[in-house]
Amino acid sequence: MNRRRWFVGRKMAVWFWVFLALLITTDFCTNYIRLQRRAEPAAMADARGLLESGEISCPSFQGAVALTFDDGPSAACTPKLLDGLKERGVHASFFLVGQNIDGNEELVLRMYREGHLIGNHSQTHMQLTAESVEEACEQIEYTNQKIAAVTGTAPEYIRPPYGSWSEELECMVPMTVALWNLDPLDWKSQDKDAVVSYVKDHVENGSIILLHDIYDSSVEAALELVDCLSEEGYEFVTVEELLIE
User: Fold this and answer.
1) Could you say which of 183, 212, 216, 227 is catalytic?
2) Read out DSSP for 63-93?
3) How far, in whole angstroms, is CA 143 from its chain's centroid?
4) The Cα angle at residue 42 between residues 37 and 26, in degrees rounded to 5
């Protein structure tokens, strides 16, 4: 009988100490959280409160996409695009036609200085595979020289017009081919809303979006896409950054 009382008493003592430990731990955690909240800046506290209440929410990361522009530069359209991209802190990729560089060297230099990728889109927007390999290589090199004369750096990326490339050119031209996988046919519709709608319906992580900075409608569509896709959690990068990842 005495042994049973001793066992019950010991069991009660163990539970008492467990309860006391839990009480002390809970009190410590509560006070710690209170101190942390007192110490946090008012702005952080306000933001945390809005998040907890559901009044604001952070967009989840949807992926990285690249905005690319062919056929420029255009004195009429490219400056507006560069202004909008700079305002939004976004870098894009420009594939330049050599003959359009003439007289627009300052635009090319601005692209380079503002961190955009500059690539080759041939000298006259020719279908490279329709010409002899020698002629195609001359056109590519001529445009490379024009870009290097402005920026001090020869481009590493080429986007062949119409996406037309060959194994022979692959062997002869030491450049990386950068094609696309999302084409809203902006040159055909020249309709800002149609372009925006198409891209929003088809965009996904890794999309390389093909646009042309020689149309006002395409420039307006591009800037609207930056705004709406950024809100949805997409990050805009250059083609190089996307391919490296």
Assistant:
1) 212
2) EEEEEEEES---TTTHHHHHHHHHHHT---E
3) 27
4) 5
Partners of 120 in the β-ladder? 96, 158
Predicted confidence at residue 29, as pLDDT, reads 44
Q: Is 206 left (phi over 0), alpha (psi -120 to 50) or beta?
A: left
The tens digit of pLDDT for each residue in 121-160 reads 999 999 999 999 999 999 999 999 999 999 999 999 999 9
Choice among 70, 71, 186, 213 that is catalytic: 70
The C-alpha atoms of residue 129 and residue 4 are separated, in whole angstroms, by: 97
**DSSP E strand stretches across 8-92:** 63-70
d(CA 12, CA 171) in angstroms, rounded, equals 84
Mean pLDDT over 26-48 rounds to 45
Active site residue 212: yes
Per-residue pLDDT averaged across 207-231, rounded?
98
**Any catalytic annotation for residue 27?**
no
What pLDDT does residue 12 have?
54
Beta bridge partners of 237: 66
pLDDT band for 92, please (50, 70, 90 cuts).
very high
| 176: enclosing H helix or E strand | strand 176-177
- 48: CB partners within 8 A, 6+ apart: 40
Q: Please tell me the pTM assigned to this model.
A: 0.77
